[in-house]
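Why do we care about 3D structure at all? Because function follows from shape, and shape follows, mostly, from sequence. That is the central idea of this module. The next example makes it concrete: a single protein chain, its amino acid sequence, and then its structure expressed as tokens.
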Amino acid sequence: MSAPQADGPRKRREGEHPPILAPGHARIQPPRSPLQDARCPEKHYPTVSNRSSPSFRLFLLLFMSSFPSLAPSAPANAISLNGRWELAYWPQGERPATEPAQVKALAVEAIAATVPGNVELDLLAAGRIADPMIGSRVYALRKYEGYQWCYTRRFGSPALRPGQRLQLHFGGIDCLASVWLNGRHVGEAANMLIEHDYDITDLLSGGGDNELQVILRSAVIEAQDYPLGALGVRADGNSESENIRKAPHAYGWDIMPRLVSAGLWRGVELRVLDPVRFEDLHWMTLRVDRAARTAEVCADYQLRVPFALIDGLRVRATLKLNAREILQRSEPLLSHSGRILLRIEDAQPWWPKGYGEPVLYDGEVQVVDGDGHVLASRAARIGLRTVQLDRTDITTPERPGRFCIVVNGERIFIRGTNWVPVDALHSRDAAQVTGVLKLASELNCNLLRCWGGNVYEDDAFFDYCDANGLLVWQDFAMGCSFYPQNSDFARKVETEVRSVVRKLRNHPSLALWSGNNEDDVSLGWQLGALNIDPNRDLISRTVIPAVLYELDPTRPYLPSSPYVSPAYYGQGNSGNFLPEDHLWGPRGYYKADFYTKSAAHFVSEIGYHGCPNRSSLERMFEPADVYPWTKDFAWNEAWLTKSVRKLPLSESTAGRNDLMLKQIRILFGDVPRDLDSFILASQAVQAEAMKYFVELWRAGKFERSGIVWWNLRDGWPIISDSVVDYYNSRKLAFYFLKNVQTTVCLMIGDPVDGHYPLVAVNDSLQAAGGGVTVTELGSGRQLFSGSYSVAANGRQKVADLPLQDGQGMLLIRYESGGEARGNHYLYGAPPFELKAYVGLLKRTGIYSSVPGL
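And the structure:
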């Protein structure tokens, strides 16, 4: 396949993040450059036959001395174009307007806009719409799906030194855009998910103001231009998203509203590029030897450099740890690209949370002249770690398989959560990401699965994960359908994957790429009778792995999650044989065979509904709609919208609120009609279910190797299976999960051979132990008193506890790392009496910090 063409001029390489000036700084004085760009036709370099000769060194000295900035160069300069813009909008006609002159001829409405931003937020600020987060108001945004938008901003021309170029950088354009400067066409963009860069040096005005315009077309209307094949899900409008590279959730999902937005959703800036600069720098860990305490890494670099200067320069790599230089290597620059190999003694590996410290080294590569002046540099924080995915294509009773993430040669038991959109309006992501990440850290997660219905998170997300030992499983942004198989779409995906991989691959937290979310299994949802083989998929089986093979050979790749391998397809494409699976099913009793008898070694989606707290309900509904039912548990319209119903006539999520009724009836018999009691009952069921799922997988370590539950936090005010709602109000399940995801944890399992097994698990590289007691709360009888000892990264059955009659709760008290901890086990067959259950829960003393308990 031929390489795809970029959406405009050369894309910026990962790691090139110059400082951003405050909005409103329209002009800068760039630092003086020591070099001129060899590409400039008006500049001529003398021919020198021997570049090591005194004459060449004299030429180099004279050439560079004509520029006062021969001292170590400052980072590349940037002018922020964030802040106030103008926004015009109008219904898209039969043919979209794509040029400024066409827009000028139209009758448009105009308002002030903020960049980064989404058009809905500008409409809200201008008073043109009501807050779409409340009730069913989100449906009022439907008409704007058929609109066009034109962003306009003026800026002054920065002064450029000889050889410098000016690049226009967009962090995110949503989505189908024509970019214009001073009435001249700059380029096109057709992917919300990646960055876009354009060289505008030759389009600047001669010293005056410049007018930048970005004209956006309707993604929903343009979807009609693409013929669809027979594959894919054709329900509830899913198909209109398949050819458009927007975040899939925008078209509506069971966890997000339909909100097909538009806008410049990440920052916009001008970047002054020096003639000597880094195009790319890729750090790779080649080997970590824990026994010898050594590591080997390499830094692959690619430069833009005038040819006449190459032979007079050197490249220098430096590693620092805690600001202390530990290693430096310098070698002659022989070409615009090269590889520097480094061997590190007394190496300190990067570890995921619980298994050690996430040690980060400061790596820097510089280009220096013969006098040691730094002409260009690129820095990154790197971790010394290797990662593998030890998996089989199938698991059977006769030949049990496996699915386990291995870091630095050590099997890692995964305690993770699914990372879903932080906000339906993604310009608000940046302000919220760190707060949500801190929730994951508080829950002692060691992996985040970046779900394929989302955008790709920015560097700040990965920087946090790097520094806090959070592994990242990254889906590519496709999900729950089967995507086009033609060469045009393949080129789109290849361009996207190249951009994303180059940007993110230096982050040690990034552990696994996955081709998509549930595309393989989606072939069976509507076309199951045809038994179509997903292994013929061009995108996940050919396009993506080819790019990864070329650009990121150090990380494992999973074609889909769950992955329907040739072996699984060959044995009938059904059955309980997937090593890694998503466990949704009937969503009945959380102890049903569907969960407990799953053969999956690793579950990457599993969850249970839980109603938000009253304070959040009162924020997301009009006062008249806070109480959910009209009669006989029939949901009012606003609650159906929050279920999440894509459009008023959509049917696909109509029964999601009923899951709460069903699950409450299973555990507590009757559904309370009082709202506060209903909230408590719903959250209690969710909390017990999520606790049970985590304990079920942890107690089976390493026959079961990880659980990534669904999900941490909502990206919109909705009714869902998150454990924290959009307003950051925690449900009871958050506290239960925090208690059972400690690195060392004791838990009680369901009866085996006439006893309750008391099990200790240890997800660290040090042995653990301490005292432990088990008490029956109702009677106060002590069932066990003793100690436990569990090996590093191990599991140990501590005791067999006697079965108890009837219903009740067992309380575990144990010591770990000098701290007193506890856990509970709810025994007996449901239904339980809600008031009695709450009373026992309070008596444990474990959850005293929970509001209402």
